[in-house]
Write a structure and sequence with these properties.
heterodimer, B: 434 Repressor (Amino-terminal Domain), two-stranded antiparallel sheet, about 5% strand
């Protein structure tokens, strides 16, 4: 089973990012902190290598998505958006009432985590349940 | 919603993967369609019916409770 051209391009880009990170670290472009370029580029490179490999192993020649999976993705994002707004409203009310006060950084971190993980959880749940619209 | 996809697919000796490939969807989508757990778009319903050499109303059977 041959690998899709799209995956090959992504893997090639990932290897380039990884090698660029390693090269920049050794070239000491950032003399004060040698690992800085590596720290930024290596995760991107690894993601670009691992994600297409996993998709190839999981889906093979099958389409990566179709109308059912697109519906599930959309519905997952919609539910996640509602939950996130609900939590933001609750945080606002609690802060206004003096029940709980959070720093801006903590609030943003919480919102990012809730928005990201709730979307993944809703999508996982919907894909196991069904997707009748 | 009930479907006759499994029966019509068997008549033509098609696997779920074969049918999925013919209508350009994932195999799990065919599985959900066969179980009646996914209401496809009109476009997908048409593609499935054509792939099975049939018509939409012969493949997908709506009952009274499905319409409410």
């Amino acid at each position: 089973m041959g690998m899709k051209q799209k995956y090959k391009v992504q893997i090639a880009a990932g290897i380039s990012f990884l090698l660029a990170g390693i090269a920049l670290a050794f070239l000491e472009v950032w003399p004060e902190e040698h690992l800085t370029p590596f720290c930024y580029l290596a995760p991107v490179g690894l993601a670009l290598i691992i994600i297409p490999l996993v998709r190839h192993w999981r889906y093979g020649d099958e389409p990566q998505k179709d109308e059912r999976t697109s519906n599930i993705l959309t519905r997952g994002f919609v539910y996640s958006w509602h939950l996130t707004v609900g939590i933001m409203v609750a945080l606002f009310v609690m802060d206004d009432a003096g029940v709980m006060t959070m720093t801006v950084q903590n609030t943003l971190a919480l919102i990012i985590l809730v928005a990201t993980f709730s979307a993944l959880i809703f999508q996982g749940y919907l894909s196991r349940k069904e997707a009748s619209l | 919603m009930k479907t006759r996809i499994k029966e019509l697919r068997a008549r033509q000796n098609l696997t779920q993967a074969d049918l999925a490939s013919m209508v350009e969807v994932r195999r799990e989508t065919i599985l959900f369609l066969e179980k009646g757990k996914y209401n496809p778009s009109l476009k997908l319903a048409h593609k499935v019916a054509v792939a099975l050499g049939s018509t939409i109303d012969e493949v997908f059977i709506f009952e009274e409770e499905d319409l409410h």
